[in-house]
Design a protein that fits this description.
Low-confidence stretches: none
Oligomer: single chain
Number of strands: 23
Structural class: alpha+beta
Radius of gyration: 22 Å
Strand content: 15-25%
Shape: globular
Amino acid sequence: MAEHVIALDQGTTSTRAIVFDAGGRIVASAQREHEQIFPRAGRVEHDANEIWTNSVWVLETALAEAGLSVAQIAALGITNQRETAIVWDRRTGRPVHNAIVWQDTRTQPAIDRLAGEHADYDRFADETGLPLAAYFSASKIAWILDNVTGARADAEAGHLLFGTPDTWLVWNLTGGSRHVTDVTNASRTLLMDLRRLEWSDAMLEVFRIPRAMLPEIVSSSEVVGEVSAVAQLRGIPIAGILGDQQAATFGQAAFGEGESKNTYGTGNFLLVGTGERIVRSPHGLISTVGYRIDGEPAQYAVEGSIAVTGSLVQWLRDNLGLFAESNDVGRLAESVPDNGGAYFVPAFSGLFAPYWRPDARGALVGLTRFVNRGHIARAALEATAFQTLDVIDAVVADTGRSLEELRVDGGMTRNGLLMQFQADILGIPVVRPEVIETTALGAAYAAGLATGVWKTLDELRAHWREGERWEPRMPGDERDRRIRMWRKAVRRSFDWVDDDARILMGTTG
């Protein structure tokens, strides 16, 4: 029997393929970045064709590096950036517009109109689990239909298809024979009934989206088709699909109620399982599907979504030229003993959880002539830890139960300075697993469960191994002072987006 699984991890800035063995260990991997397209302020796009081309390359490269044949691969699992909207023509297979990325805020005026004069951004939360926000897919689809010539007519004629990147990849991998998404990705569109796990006719009407555009909703762990369009992988079952943050939770073996993880990537995302119960948060968290194994009830979670963490480091690299490589941020931050009084609130797309303030914008405050490049780098890293604190405080307020430790994963957890500061500012241990690529691992686990590589969740729990631990060591009074300064900085970022700012950004429509 084949005992290896390949995971395709299609993220916001790059696409990776990782081959795992039956012990959950990495055998081989390949990665390739794709272009970040910024047509104007507030707009973020990707070339969906580039994502597909990169996906083929990393899959073929990882398989070759592993030295394995197709017969030795039991399944392919897919995980992806969520909420990002791709619309393509089923007749040609070509996108009608660039993918509109989850960070994009062009649809905020439309969202504000839906919220109405009373700013009721929670008007659909009972059905969808989500606040009204430009973050989610629905308003992005509607924008494409309303702004691409002929798109609405083609959609109503049944010619156009929508999908988040998982759907786009499965459709291409299967030669256009399967148009599907899993429950976790569907739960991030603002179009799915969270209880029934079906597309909501009421929400489709609100956003004027034809049902024929939407993919079939499937479980996170089930065989949905097989690869036909990539010769080197032909015949491999596609057996797992999870949105990236749910996949990371799955990879951390946080399957049960009360179990959690925090992923440090382009943004930060804290998920806490709530079992078969849908929990409504009064403190700024959202309700979402955690995962669903074929034939079993869906497992739910609450999530704290932070828009900008790792992408802030990328911004310092690409837009300001503070360093040549992202990894250099740690060395620059370590060149100073503290932040020099500077606090960085990276509200580039507004603030997500727990604030949900689309009117906020990025702010670097507390500047004096003393502040240098090192202080700014340190403030950027600390912003990640402070935003995580805000989300964890919301979790504690919702559950009435403090976290004993924080399990972390993702690329930024390689930065020891950040992880130590995170432990200090939370006042609890921070624990990183041996395998930090838990997003890809979660997709592999889901696919392997569906194809018999692994039999039970308990078997997967046994694979989790602690890699490194950071204990808090900052004095309590110093911790409290820094938190007060951070929250003062956050308040300074509010109320920036007004009519003048919208004209500048070209989002008045």
